[in-house]
Amino acid sequence: MVLAVQTIGARHAKLAAPPFILLSADDRAGGGTFGETLRINYDCWDDIRRVAAFAQPPIQLRTGAGSSDLRLCAIALPENDAARLTMTRKVAYLVDQRQLDEHFGWELRWQPGSKPG
Question: What is the pTM of this model?
Answer without folding.
Answer: 0.54
